[in-house]
Amino acid sequence: MTALTQLSQAIHDAPRWHQAEQFQDGNEIRIEAQHDQALGAVVYGLDARKAQSGETIYRLKQALAEHLILIFKHQSLDDLQYLAFASYFGSIFRPGADIPVLASQDDTGTPPDVVPVSNAVGKGDYTGHGELAAHADHQWTPLPSFGSLLYAIELPQDGGQTSWYNTIKAYEALDEATQKHLDQLQLITYNPFVRAKNNKGTTGYGATPLYRFKDQPIVGHAYPHPLVRTHPESGRKGLWLNERSEVELVHYDDQSGSELIASLREHLLKPEFRYEHQWEEGDIVFWDNQATLHSRRPFPSDQRRLLKRISLAGGRPY
Ligand code: OGA
Ligand code: MN
Question: Which keywords belong to this entry (predicted)?
Fold first, then answer.
């Protein structure tokens, strides 16, 4: 027989339902909303290595749509078990080779299904140790991922916290006239990895212009998406704009567009919309890219940090 891909192997090897000790009892699972935070719920008592019931997955999907990030504690998984768990929630995000993203490989043009997000040399080394500005994964692609999971394996002593921002709360905090105006706008977010590819050595999240004026060159393809995005499950609207990519409002005056975007970015990053996660080894955070942004604090380069990321495919934003 031919060799299986990692993903097929993961499903092939996944626990069978008739093995009682490998089947998760849904009654053991507790989902606790973080009422004192802008978003998030913590999931206790779930072992992601086990087979999950339909009821459990449905509960988790509903909780994700409501709380936007789910924090699973005390996990211990290999890559195949991690893939098997993540794929309960959708297909793995696999962009075409014409769309460079984090960890796209030189030979295939595509990223691995499990991306090592790490400064640990020899273990992937994607994103380094610097600050990451607030972003939604793959926002610059035609079909951005609906969600991503990060699994913490090795953590630094200092720094490296990840924050998530509730873009629905940010939108709802705007006055009605502003909401009405924004509701009709389309935004292009230029792919930072196209620029990074042209200027080897940059990470893709860093130094690009914040707004493209019409006399400036276009770097890469443009995929306009609504500035105000409707969440597919809840119908709630969120402000879908990241902190630092080069963006452009479609059919909009350069100067007033760049000023509007700058003020919205400032608004989005307010502490009342944010939850900062203090990682513990074994945490998996599963977030909804459709209605959140995330950022990371820097950490010392001589301390190791290794997380593994899986992103799940999403539809065209609306
Ligand atoms: C990512 C990411 C944040 C972090 O992997 O998409 O943004 O805390 N990581 O490393
Ligand atoms: Mn990210």
Answer: Dioxygenase, Iron, Metal-binding, Oxidoreductase
Q: How high is the pLDDT of residue 195?
A: 83
The helices-and-strands tally (H runs, E runs) of the chain is 7, 17
Chain-centroid distance of CA 17 in Å reads: 31
Which residue numbers in the chain have pLDDT < 50?
Answer: none
Mean residue pLDDT of the chain comes to 94
Tokens of 158: 């200092």
Instruction: State how far the alpha carbon of 79 is from the alpha carbons of 10, 11, 101, 174, 286, in Å.
Output: 8, 12, 20, 42, 16
Q: What is the pTM of this model?
A: 0.96
What are the structural domain ranges in the chain? 3-159+276-312, 167-268
In the CATH scheme, what is the code of domain 167-268?
A: 3.60.130.10
The answer, yes or no, to whether any atom of ligand 1 lies below 6 A from the CB of 283, is no
Measured by CA distance, the residue closest to atom 3 of ligand 1 is 296
Tell me which architecture the domain covering 3-159+276-312 has in CATH.
Answer: 4-Layer Sandwich (3.60)
163 CA from centroid of ligand 2 (Å) = 11
pLDDT for residue 197: 74
According to the model, what pLDDT value does residue 75 have?
98
**Residue 145 Cβ < 6 Å to ligand 1:** no
Which amino acid, residue 154?
Answer: E
For residue 208, the model assigns a pLDDT of: 81
* Ion ligand 2 neighbours, Cβ < 5 Å: 137
